[in-house]
Amino acid sequence: MGSGSIRRAAGALFRGVVSGPQAPAGTFTDVPTTSAVHPTAVASAAVPAARRGAVTARSVLTRTGAALAGTAVLLPPLLLAAPAAHADEKPKDGKDGQHAPKAPAPPAGMSKVGGGLLGRSGTQVQLKPGAPKLPEDLTARSWIVSDAESGKVLAAHNAHWQLPPASTLKMLFADTVMPKFPKTQKYTVKPADLAGMGVGSSLVGIKENLSYTVHDLWLGVFLRSGNDAVHTLSAMNGGTAKTVQEMQKQAEALNAADTHVVTPDGYDAPGQVSSAYDLSLFARAGLQNADFREYCSTVSTQFPGEVKDGKRGSFGIQNTNRLLSGDYDLKPYPGIAGVKNGSTTNAGSTFTGVAQRGERKLLVTVMNPEKKEHNEVYKETAKLFDWGFAAADKVEPVGRLVGPKSEEGDARAGGAKLDGDKARAGMQDTSGSSGGVWTALAITGGALVVLGGLALAVHRRWPLPELMRRRGGKH
User: Fold this and answer.
1) Which of 8, 125, 207, 234 has the greatest count of CB atoms below 10 A from its CB?
2) pTM attached to this predicted model
3) Alpha carbons 230 and 235: distance in angstroms, whole number
4) CA angle 135, 112, 428 (to 5 degrees)
């Protein structure tokens, strides 16, 4: 979103987080559909009526106290319980623990938005003496580790490789549509609103001819990756085609040049691509919005159900992000606070997460691990978070997350080819372009500098409101 629509709400609390299990081969779902977890019966037992409403990581931690330091978030037993394995969590090749066919090579030339090094294939990192080495067992086709506030990219691997995004694209959907409707607005779902969803779509359980608040719908988008909620909000926004067009314009406004939008929900479609770099831009933009932070970090809540005996029922839904809720083979990640997962046949598993340790806030995006073990995308994300927190002051940035065009113009025009801090300090362009040496100028944040006819926006620190501070957030 443009800077004019960014909500900075200093001191606002960022709670909880997001993500989901892997899809079965041949389907296009991010999480089990509501037929697998549905709910009216489960809901009353899982989340008592007295506890209706969103349960955030913050509120859960408050109840659990210091005994949970560095471990897991307690959730209602039925919500936390999960089978040892789900049919839709098997790897795409159907062989547990086996590698899929060797991943294709990234293109030789990729976008240089954010810095020349980010346009190169392979791993880009500049370690200072004493810096920890990157984890050796990373198998993702693309990943990026960045500072969520300053935008410095600490390390990256094929950051601009255009790949299917799955439901991580819902972050862009939220950036585009969320500012349009107040959360208290109600909408009655029409049968046509739910038409056109892809086979195997993940669903939250929206029913036609029933009314939902915008708040309900966004919780369905973020907690259950509900394509039915996305299509309902798209209908409110004037239809799927209009929403897709607006999402593309929003991507361009955010300088996300790798992204081509075909569907609003991330369902596999020919030509639909994004990149680890762009997904990080979408997350960073969304995190400026207090409502976005609430939805993407909510752990569990009650969702409106059907009407029986004249009364509207409800059922419990839980955020499927395994770095938040944990799983039988994975503990919650200390300090996690967002944002969105995805999984489809073409995309594999994708995830963008934000976490805080001390005053440091990091964004990590991981796309399509070659290793198809259970929860692999979360495991590789956790390793990159660990490395990033340990290495943040011991590496030279290899680039930066650029701001929207409203702050610094079109990044493709050349301004964003200046790497990281060197761009902000007016130092030498190391991207390989013909920029030469820029004169350092003392200016206030947000002012525009014109050098050699090129308009550059000085990328000021883009603060995130205070994230959730977990007791386990410090190691």
Assistant:
1) 234
2) 0.74
3) 9
4) 95
Name beta bridge partners: 451. Answer: 454
Question: How many of the other CB atoms lie within 10 Å of CB of 263?
Answer: 23
Q: Are 250 and 406 in contact (CB under 8 A)?
A: no
Structure letter (DSSP) for residue 346:
T
- pLDDT value of residue 126: 98
Alpha-carbon span 79 to 73, nearest angstrom:
12
Cis peptide before 377 (omega within 30 of 0): no
For residue 409, the SS3 value is coil
Rounded Cα distance between 390 and 378, Å, is 18
- How much is the pLDDT for 461? 57
Angstrom CA distances, 428 to 149, 168, 431, 438, 447, stand at: 23, 35, 9, 6, 20
Q: Which residues are catalytic?
A: 167, 170, 225
Q: Which residues of the chain have pLDDT under 70?
A: 1-103, 414-462, 466-475
Q: List, in sequence order, the alpha helices (H) in 121-226.
A: 170-177, 214-224
Strands 123-127, 395-396: pairing kind: antiparallel
Residue 312 CA to residue 48 CA, distance in Å, equals 15
